[in-house]
């Protein structure tokens, strides 16, 4: 199974609820770059699962529209996801070839570090709109193999 981690694109500064922050024009451009990168490189998810938070959901909608992938909301991808919860939730999708998750930091660094068996997740920096691809045999700690991590600015 391949798991993609796409951090949400750049969002507005908090003027109200953090949940409702929308992507900025630059963020929309980042999401479109990520979507075109996926399409151009044959990274077509069987399923995209997004955080319900507006900035993540909007990023995921752009990628889904471009790649033709199915999209669902996973409340477990909300801000504050723990690696143990991630492993339990992703196991339900292990029959899929490629699942793309759209969510947040530091949640993604923690989840990726768990899959790769890294002791310190702070050794990873997942920038806004960056795409990380990890192959796994089964969802458990230390089972993953990093394929790549690419920031949006290199996806042109």
In words, what does this structure look like?
It contains 4 helices and 6 strands. It is of the alpha/beta class. It has a single domain, classed as Rossmann fold (3-Layer(aba) Sandwich). It has a 6-stranded mixed beta sheet, with helices on both faces. A hairpin with a 7-residue loop joins strand 5 and strand 6. Helix 1 runs parallel beside helix 2 and helix 3 crosses helix 4. The longest helix is centred in the first third of the chain and has 16 residues. The two termini are 26 Å apart. 41% of the residues are buried.
Quick structural gist:
With 156 residues, the chain is an alpha/beta fold. It is built from four helices and six strands; from the N terminus they run βαβαβαβαββ.
Write the layout of secondary structure elements.
Elements: E1 2-7, H1 25-40, E2 47-50, H2 54-67, E3 70-73, H3 83-91, E4 98-103, H4 107-116, E5 131-136, E6 144-150
Parallel strand pairs: 1-4, 2-3, 2-4
Antiparallel strand pairs: 1-5, 5-6
């Amino acid at each position: 199974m391949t798991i993609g981690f796409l951090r949400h694109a750049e969002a507005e500064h908090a003027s109200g609820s953090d949940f409702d922050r929308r992507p900025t024009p630059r963020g929309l451009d980042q999401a479109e770059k990520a979507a075109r990168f996926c399409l151009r490189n044959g990274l077509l998810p069987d399923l995209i699962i997004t955080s319900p938070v507006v900035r993540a959901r909007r990023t995921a909608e752009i990628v889904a529209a471009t790649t033709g992938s199915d999209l669902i909301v996973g409340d477990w991808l909300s801000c504050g996801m723990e690696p143990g919860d991630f492993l339990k939730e992703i196991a339900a999708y292990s029959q899929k070839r490629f699942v793309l998750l759209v969510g947040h930091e530091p949640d993604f660094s923690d989840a990726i570090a768990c899959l790769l068996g890294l002791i310190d997740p702070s050794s990873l920096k997942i920038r806004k709109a960056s795409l990380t691809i990890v192959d796994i045999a089964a969802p458990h700690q230390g089972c993953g193999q990093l394929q790549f991590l690419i920031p949006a600015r290199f996806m042109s």
